[in-house]
Amino acid sequence: MTAMAKPHPSLLLVLVPVVVTGFAFYVANWRWPELASGMAGSIAWIGGMLFTLLIGKSADVIGYNPLFVALAAMDILGAAVLWALLRKQPARKAR
Questions:
Q1: How many CB atoms lie within 10 A of CB 35?
Q2: Model pTM score
Q3: Which of the listed residues 1, 10, 17, 29 has the most CB atoms within 10 Å of its CB?
Q4: What is the pLDDT of residues 49-86, one digit of tens each?
Q5: Which residues contact residue 11 at a Cβ distance below 8 angstroms, ignoring those fewer than 6 apart?
Q6: Is 21:42 a contact under the CB 8 Å cutoff?
Q7: Percent of the chain with pLDDT over 70
Q8: Three-state SS across the chain?
């Protein structure tokens, strides 16, 4: 009897959204808005999981101090971009 090969863990990244979306599509009686909602939820789940993995791996590799400094710099950069986008535009003259 031969042993079955173990599937790669990243296979879950493909199979879980496909199965969940297919089930949602079936339950929603083949309506597209519900399918889009299920796909958005699956993509959000994958994004959250990958972000957690990235931050955890970064903390292991470079440590917590440089990671928190980089996160603080991103907050300042985001505030500067938001400030630039939301500042008042000069009034235009009507013709």
A1: 16
A2: 0.47
A3: 17
A4: 888 888 888 889 988 898 889 889 999 999 999 999 88
A5: none
A6: yes
A7: 73
A8: CCCCCCCCCCHHHHHHHHHHHHHHHHHCCCCHHHHHHHHHHHHHHHHHHHHHHHHHHHHHHHCHHHHHHHHHHHHHHHHHHHHHHHCCCCCCCCC
